[in-house]
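Quick review question:
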């Protein structure tokens, strides 16, 4: 048989590969789902429900062939904070609202905007989340008792210090068994699900050698039901919607970022191309449906998606099978999961935190000692010590400010004059003793916008409009202009005109020209004052100066100055005709007075 769309070319061989990969990923997802749920402050079965429902729906409706969806470590601090502040039912409602937002983002094709989030912001908050997850498991690793979980990082660290005397050696042994199994298998047998093997070994050791000495899922949360919960629609009111809109937005944004990053990773591993807007819609549908079965927020899981691909997946069917495998295991083995020690799950989350920390990329960005380093560190610190919402907001604003500053610094305005050797205008030709008192020629380079407008004002002061008879702006290297820069240009134009002078522009590009035409400044400057080439504009400038002022001038800024500085040119006399008469240029219909090539 053959398929269509994302299942194009699908056959029985493809199905067999998807069954293998889906089964492997499903087995890996079970301990992770429970661990993420516990760390998020909810019962472990809710993580399993999310893995099943969201995992299947993301594969069915998403925009990536290989995406594996479910609960992820990135959501832990967000979901825990929402649950602490608003309660479990409101956490479900916030997840559903986030799903609606994700669907709307996909429908209105906003997926591409997520890609504009600066890399230092993403790395910064991801590393911060990793620190929160890792340190959040220290208590379970050490077997500390009587601890109370808080939203604030500092408060949680104080809790560890206050209860360090309750350390449990049996918990540490259990945790070490799990950790060693995970690390050894990752190095020597990477295809074997180390987290699952670690949990099984640690559970066996704890049960055989010190049963009852360590806290387990059963003792902390009760037995895990071997069935899905009944469908239940949360009680949504307008008051709850307004109360939860900010948490829902945070969940939606984080889910969108994580899912599209995972899809990009999958594209790089397979050479396929995902549909970002469809991916957001699929993520939204999954997050709308999962809470109706008690599930928490879900998104694309980078590590599980990569494992899916490495295991031979060829279509979204592998993701669907992964959800089915988790459901079957829930039905058959749920009662045994109650015996898993919490200490055995701590290394699972610690390893997840270590892997997601982006430590190498963090170090690389930090070493650059640039604005990106500042954005990275501030986003990281705010994520750890305040909350993710504030961290991302500040990170984005700071990145935008630094970008504007850097772009503004790229804009350059320099005063120039013709170089007789190259027949081009150059900045080095301008000096105290070599500058035209009546004509100011300025080369502008780079985008001219609000962030660069100050450089325009500093380099071409308004006093230049009074000192020079003609101002010539060479704008061939200005690709963009905004209304702030347009206003400054208008001020300069008015100053030049009020002083009885003339402003000329050469080589202007399409976007700045279009803006000047729409604002009316084009007409104010005058259509005849726009030139394609600098040489033509200089010719016009030379015919607009006061020749009497040129007499005796020693600057010799232009080649015509040898004539202009003599008494051979009279006021009001046509300059070109005079130069032709004196034999300074050859008679030609196309002859120019000065001919810089630019």
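Suggested answer, residue by residue:
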């Amino acid at each position: 048989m053959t398929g269509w769309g994302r299942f194009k070319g699908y056959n029985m061989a493809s199905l067999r590969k998807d069954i293998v990969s889906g089964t492997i990923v499903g087995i890996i997802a079970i301990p992770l789902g429970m661990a993420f749920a516990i760390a998020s402050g909810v019962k472990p079965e809710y993580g399993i429900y999310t893995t099943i429902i969201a995992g299947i729906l993301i594969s069915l409706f998403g925009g990536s062939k290989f995406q594996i969806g479910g609960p992820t470590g990135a959501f832990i601090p967000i979901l825990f904070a929402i649950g602490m502040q608003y309660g479990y039912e409101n956490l479900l409602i916030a997840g559903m609202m986030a799903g609606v937002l994700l669907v709307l983002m996909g429908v209105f094709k906003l997926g591409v905007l997520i890609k504009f989030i600066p890399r230092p912001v993403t790395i910064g908050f991801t590393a911060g989340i990793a620190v929160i997850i890792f340190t959040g498991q220290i208590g379970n690793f050490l077997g500390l008792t009587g601890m109370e979980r808080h939203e604030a990082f500092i408060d949680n660290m104080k809790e560890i210090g206050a209860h360090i005397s309750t350390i449990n050696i049996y918990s540490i042994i259990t945790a070490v068994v799990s950790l060693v199994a995970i690390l050894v298998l990752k190095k020597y047998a990477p295809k074997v699900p180390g987290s699952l093997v670690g949990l099984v070994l640690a559970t066996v050791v704890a049960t055989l050698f010190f049963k009852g000495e360590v806290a387990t899922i059963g003792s902390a949360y009760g037995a895990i039901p071997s069935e899905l919960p009944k469908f239940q629609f949360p009680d949504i009111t307008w008051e709850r919607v307004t109360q939860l809109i900010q948490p829902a937005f945070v969940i939606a944004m984080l889910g969108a970022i994580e899912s599209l990053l995972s899809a990009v990773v999958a594209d790089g591993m397979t050479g396929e191309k995902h549909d970002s807007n469809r991916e957001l819609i699929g993520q939204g549908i999954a997050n709308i449906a999962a809470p109706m079965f008690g599930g928490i927020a879900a998104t694309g899981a980078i590590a599980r998606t990569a494992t899916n691909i490495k295991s031979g997946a060829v279509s979204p069917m592998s993701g669907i099978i992964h959800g089915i495998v988790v459901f079957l295991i829930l039905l058959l083995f749920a009662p045994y999961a109650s015996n898993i020690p919490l200490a055995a799950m701590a290394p699972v989350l610690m390893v997840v935190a270590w892997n997601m920390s982006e430590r190498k990329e963090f170090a690389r960005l930090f070493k650059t000692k640039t604005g990106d380093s500042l954005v990275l560190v501030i986003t990281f610190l705010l994520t750890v010590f305040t909350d993710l919402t504030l961290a991302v907001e500040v990170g984005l604003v700071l990145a935008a400010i630094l970008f504007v500053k850097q772009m503004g610094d790229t804009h350059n305005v320099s005063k120039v004059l013709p170089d007789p050797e190259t027949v081009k205008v150059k900045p080095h030709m301008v000096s105290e003793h070599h500058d035209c008192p009546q004509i100011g020629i300025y080369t502008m380079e780079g985008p001219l916008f609000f962030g660069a407008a100050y450089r325009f004002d500093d380099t071409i002061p308004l006093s230049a409009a009074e000192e020079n008879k003609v101002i010539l702006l060479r704008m061939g290297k200005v690709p963009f202009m905004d209304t702030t820069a347009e206003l400054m240009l208008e001020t300069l134009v008015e100053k030049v005109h009020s002083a009885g002078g003339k402003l000329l522009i050469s080589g202007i590009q399409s976007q700045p020209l279009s803006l000047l035409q729409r604002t009316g400044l084009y007409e104010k400057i005058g259509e005849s004052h726009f030139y394609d080439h600098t040489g033509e504009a200089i010719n016009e400038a030379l015919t607009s100066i006061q020749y009497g002022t040129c007499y005796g001038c020693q600057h010799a800024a232009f080649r015509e100055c040898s004539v202009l500085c003599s008494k051979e040119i009279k006021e009001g006399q046509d300059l070109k005709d005079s130069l032709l008469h004196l034999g300074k240029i050859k008679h030609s219909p196309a002859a120019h007075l000065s001919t810089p090539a630019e």
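Why it works: Strands lie at 69-70, 299-300, 412-419, 424-426, 439-445, 470-477, 502-506, 530-531. Residues 580-595 have pLDDT under 50 and may be disordered.
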